[in-house]
Amino acid sequence: MIRRLMPMCIFPLAVIANGFASSPWLRAFPAATLALPLFGAALISVLLPLVTARLGASLLRGVIVDIAAFVLYSLVVVLGEPLGFGDLVDGLVHGPSQLLTFALPLVSPPTLMVTPVAICWLAGAIGGEVLSRRPSSLVPYAGWLIAFGISYAATERATGIDLGAARIIEAELAGGLLATMALLRLVQVWTRDSVGRDATEGDGELPLRPLLVGVVSTVVVAVLAGFLVQADLFGGVPKAPERVPAVNQAAPVTPLAFVSSLRPAAGAPVGPALFTVSTDRASNGYFALASVDLYDGDSWSFNRTFRPSGGVVPADVDPTLTPDVQEISQVYRVASPTLVNSPWMLYLNRPMSVTDLGINVDSMSGMIVPAEAVRAEASYQVSSLADARTLAGLPTTSQLEVGGAPINTQLPASIRATMLKVVDSFSNETGKSATSSVEFLQALAADLRNNYGLSGGPSTASSSPASDAVPESGTHTGGTNFSDVVASIIGPQRAGTPEQFATIFALVARQLGVPARVVTGFRVQPRGSDVPAGTYSVTATQATTWVEVPVQGVGWVPVDTVPASYLNQQQSRGIGAAVPTPAATAPPSQNALIDTNNGGHAVAGKSAVPGSGGSSVLLTTLLVVALALLLAALVVTLLLLRKRRRRRRRSQLADPRQRLIGAWAESLDLLAESGLSDITHLTGAEIATQTALHFGDESGGQIATLARSADRALYSPRSTIGEDAADDAWQTQLALARSVHEQLGRREQLLAMLRHSTVSRPAAGPEGPASWDRPLLEGGAGSRSGRLGRLFGFFGRRH
Length: 799
Prior knowledge:
There is one protein chain. The protein contains 24 helices and 17 strands. It is an alpha+beta fold. The chain is elongated and about 120 Å long.
């Protein structure tokens, strides 16, 4: 029993070793994104060579099958594009350099997963091909160790890794790989030593002592590697520059003041264009410069980590926020020195890729910043998936995404009591219940735009007492301090800056549990309608600030709350329900200033990027299963076609003698494939007897008739074999196939269909008399029959 089971352990252990060798790639990709494609490749790449080798394929044919299967697997499972050959080539050619350049971990694009799967497949295919043909070889071990080293080195820069836990995980992976290879080697040695044992001998003893020594050695090596490699002994300051640029660090800053300072005073000259943007599709017209999500009650800021990128921006970790729309390509040409020297870059929605300019990326928010100094008149291209609609254009049945990062729903505890009153006030004023989030937020945005005013408008002679309190043109009523916002917007003036209106709306949304972030940038006119494809010159008067909220299936959509006119241009309106102003009102505070020395970077603690939702896991699982079934169907089809081709080749030989011998050879293969084993050293009469015992007297009689005809064709070279004799032999072979098939059950029929016999090609026995071959060789056409006579010479030893 052990003798039969031990060889069966070779390939399961090879699959496990291949999985361990590839597992470090999961540090660079979320498990839900890469695990199934990667470990599916680890399994199929090892087992596929076993199938092809068992079917008798040569090494060259096995390699061709491996390559074809890898291409099919990559297109269907990894890329999800059956015809995406360009993406496959891009992943193989540019993937390695991108993995060494892009910020890790990554969730997109899928082309970045081609390289890990290719390395896993290569290591598995080498192991499978070698072990299928030389089960005791050591070559697969080198492939797995090299694959582990490459995957470990390529993912060492991945963020979101706790160093203490990483050491344990790395030691466990290395230990698992070493232990699996040690077990595999023991199985190889035991199987090799057991070859040649007679069936009457015992199974032998398992090499328990080497097994124990190997396991202990594996544990010791893994523990030493886990602790010594990370120890201070190997530390020190590198004397050469690192490949990965250092991350710029600074205290949190906000870009709101930067955009606010760009807007000219009311009535002031417009000034030259700051930049031009060209789009190839209609858009909502909101071009962001930066977003902020951290509010402390005084100002907005962000606390993020910007990592170098090769131009690719990872997709949102929440797949429900990926818009199901076509890409919008934008080309920006920055004309203003003010924007050239700013630490931020323009983009529409969350970018997918950026070309013509090096960037650093915050993978959580999708915000991009230049990786190097931007020259004057610089241009760059951004590709985004962006829905042209804003929140106002969505149906009230739209579903808001209430999950995601907690920072987007954070509210200081000190303002929660007041925010309850603010929400009640706006609910009464709009006549909409706050429990219906989308409808209420749409009504609130419309209320702010239509019934409130911008501060800082031009003075008029007919100003009301309320408007007399408004500062002169060009000044602002205050920053985003909570007291300033409430006093300005909900106070008697009902006016504020775009930043203040965005702040009050974002705080209301967060009070309702809806994630919201404040975005600042530029709005291309006209507001409230799609902006057609084309080229637009954007001036400082279009600088503004808005809010974004996440909607399922649409993404982060803009909410414009900026009033359409200045307070001085409106008539005084009453408030539906007054909200008490906080007792302690701090002096107006300005937005945080920009520290241009650090490039506007704000560094957060490392955090793991969560994986995609369960729907992608299910889809990938179905793709892997479908591909496995497809490969199985392909193997069965090739096998059936191979049998059909074998039969056609034998039945269409020109020489009648060779055709008759072909019918006999086809019959031998048929019996072996149907379960009649150990017939290679039997005479024709003995084969007929065994056939009758297994498949009935009818089949036995048919094989006996074929055996007599084959004996005459093989061993009576002077006899005449006509076309009628060859045709009769093939008719008998066809009748034999039917009778044998009728005697088999469904399971046996399936197994017979999957088997491919080589009984008709045994090793040549002792040479027969030379006189058997000489007349055939002289006849020219009979030379092949002479070789077949030697091939079936085992019958002559028993006659």
